[in-house]
Amino acid sequence: MNENKQRAIFYHAGCPVCVSAEQSLVGALDRGRYAVEVVHLGNDKARVAEARAAGVQSVPALVLGGQTLHVNFGAALSDLG
Amino acid sequence: MNENKQRAIFYHAGCPVCVSAEQSLVGALDRGRYAVEVVHLGNDKARVAEARAAGVQSVPALVLGGQTLHVNFGAALSDLG
Fold it and tell me: Per-residue pLDDT tens for B12-23?
């Protein structure tokens, strides 16, 4: 990872709302300035705690430079484990 | 406006949640590919109807290439006129 880039983590759970948001929003981020990671919490339950610690309450959500943005509503984090 | 760019319109109402989302999310968009416009619906009520037509139900919201993304929750569009 380029150390000069800020981190952007998109958490989702594979739901239609998530996929739709991912395709538009994640695709619009400036990859020159952001190191973008997409995490499927349904498949990678070990990272649910990390998402919760970042303030994620529902998915899809984008954690961008330390700020948590909930984008539309697909599923509650509490339903994912 | 560069005709090759997609449009990205960020609707907000000056609320703290809106300003916070604007600073992080709007700042992260790829300006090389998106023509970004920020609309303050509290000051520009004439555009509330346009936002509603785009499917905006609350602010802040980002309309990106025709898709409407509600980001966190600041205020309901119905409270803005």
Answer: 999 999 999 999
What confidence tens digit (pLDDT) does each residue in A42-80 have?
Answer: 999 999 999 999 999 999 999 998 899 999 999 999 999
Q: d(Cα B43, Cα A25) in Å, to the nearest integer?
A: 26
Task: Establish, for the pair of chains A and B, how many residue pairs have beta carbons separated by less than 8 Å.
Answer: 53
A40 vs A76: CA distance, rounded Å: 14
Give the C-alpha separation, A33 to A70, whole Å: 21
Is residue B29 less than 8 Å (CB to CB) from chain A? yes
A12-47 pLDDT, tens digit each: 999 999 999 999 999 999 999 999 999 999 999 999
Region of residue B65 (phi > 0: left; psi between -120 and 50: alpha; otherwise: beta)? left
CB–CB contact A67 B30 (8 Å): no
Q: Which one, of A25, A4, A23, lies nearest residue A14 by Cα?
A: A23
User: In sequence order, what are the residues at sequence separation of 6 or more whose Cβ sits closer than 8 angstroms to the Cβ of residue A33?
Assistant: A5, A6, B28
* 8 Å CB contact of B30 and A25: no
- Give dist(CA B7, CA A3) in Å, integer: 30
